[in-house]
Amino acid sequence: MLYITGHKNPDTDSICSAIVLAHFLDGAPARLGELNPETEFVLKKFGVMEPELIKSAKDKEIILVDHAEKSQSLDDLDDGKLIGIIDHHKIGITTSEPILYIAKPVGSTATVISELYFRGMMEFIGGKNKELKPDLAGLLLSAILSDTILFKSVTTTDIDRELAEKLAEIAGINDIYAYGMEMLKAKSTVGSMDPEEIVNMDYKDFEFNGKKVGIGQVEVIDVSEVEAKKQDIYKALEEKFKEGYDLILFLITDIMKEGSEVLVVGNKEAFEKAFNVKLNNNSIFLDGVMSRKKQVVPPLEKYYMQ
Amino acid sequence: MLYITGHKNPDTDSICSAIVLAHFLDGAPARLGELNPETEFVLKKFGVMEPELIKSAKDKEIILVDHAEKSQSLDDLDDGKLIGIIDHHKIGITTSEPILYIAKPVGSTATVISELYFRGMMEFIGGKNKELKPDLAGLLLSAILSDTILFKSVTTTDIDRELAEKLAEIAGINDIYAYGMEMLKAKSTVGSMDPEEIVNMDYKDFEFNGKKVGIGQVEVIDVSEVEAKKQDIYKALEEKFKEGYDLILFLITDIMKEGSEVLVVGNKEAFEKAFNVKLNNNSIFLDGVMSRKKQVVPPLEKYYMQ
């Protein structure tokens, strides 16, 4: 049985890309954890069921979407049969056999899947030439808007904007910006969440030169709700740090200000050298930094690989 | 400037895929070493110039074809800007930034490129919708025939056969099998080569769990010419072994018998355990084994990763 799955602590791109790709490949969409409030909002909005929660790769054929990093995937990924990856991140995985790999440096995995669809390329990846219905177009649109933070992230490309418009037309969304703000607000309901939930909502593990590094992120329109919980979030990070980390970063991304406050636990020297900055105690605001993938991971990896 | 390059000790697939892809992407085809007799025959047959020899990635944008393994690429690959990989091997490379990656588990890289062309997908990889002229179709056909050893290798898929026929039509090759035999015979001119040349003609380095493993291969229609030089080839392998290897294998693949005699230097226990066989002194004939990628690398890697 073929399963399509995004990464742990799934975000909207991971969930929506898995659902749409499973539709075209006749596989089952899967998730590795609970949905965040934004993704819940999106699935409800377009009337689509949440994917099945899976905990093991055993006896499964697996296609990964939205990640190419073992530390972000099923713990026993090697016990299953990895047959493909559709992604927009760096290559962080090696295999012992040839597989299907489709990746482009664009704003979201949903962008890659949308382009495959609009160019009539589903057969190239072993899928069927089906029609993209409004509900699934809505999921892909939401994933693009979520991952590019309404086209504000540096990861945004022309093709993200172009395809978002085509998808919006199919999905019947007239005002992309208004819909995007509505969706991001759903994500920003951190007021009712406890610190651990906020930290884990969009949290990814990396391994750089044998060192374990965790990077969490929350994107908010109104930063005051998170600000109020900053001390508690930092405590939750310190607790997590005991699980063998060298460094943990947590980005509180201010969508309106277009920058991120970074909370740093652990190897502060690594952070300061990688970004060439000086921390104010445990944190610093990095103007213009909104993308973990493009602006946070590369300098860190470069530092650790030295 | 954009360069498209295959692997070290280039084979027909590496050279022809680089030339054709460079045509569609408006880049320059490059090679990392001397052409083998088969590839020389192919370029002469279709009247295409050999690619430029390059020795450094510095100040270059690079797209890799037919490999995804640092040990098989430019020594200073990290000094250039790797922007893409088009391949049909296992993933053996990681990156620090997102790149274009198109891979499928098919018989050759030329198959992937041909499918991209026939499905009108060149724009998806940033290329132009140009026409595939007979000379370039001939190169892609030759690469498919070479890598699948005339469709006899276990790596062969239906799509390899299908696309080869379409390419043959454009290239004006009426009898694919007859052309393939003619081409393979050119490769088999090992009679006039010295042992080092035979070993290096199609030789690839791998790193498994920190251990350096080299695997060379020669495919012949008439095995007697190589048989006569076996002692000298083994001596050449022993010489090479001094360069920090844990294990070196050399496959003398008998195209007619559809199997390979494997010469083994170094960690013989690793070889015997990985393949669950007993060596006769330094070698063994493995019936049905013709593909390094699919039948030799995976069991070895599995053994070393234990």
Automatic annotation (TrEMBL), chains A, B:
PANTHER family: BNIP - RELATED (PTHR12112), MANGANESE-DEPENDENT INORGANIC PYROPHOSPHATASE-RELATED (PTHR12112:SF22). Mn(2+) 2 binds at D13, D66, H88, D147. Mn(2+) 1 binds at H7, D11, D66. This is Probable manganese-dependent inorganic pyrophosphatase. InterPro entries: DDH_dom, DHH_sf, DHHA2, DHHA2_dom_sf, Mn-dep_inorganic_PyrPase. Its cofactor is Mn(2+). GO terms for cellular component: cytoplasm. HAMAP family: PPase_C (MF_00207). It holds the Pfam family DHH. Belongs to the PPase class C family. It catalyses: diphosphate + H2O = 2 phosphate + H(+). Keywords: Cytoplasm, Hydrolase, Manganese, Metal-binding. Its EC number is 3.6.1.1. Binds 2 manganese ions per subunit.
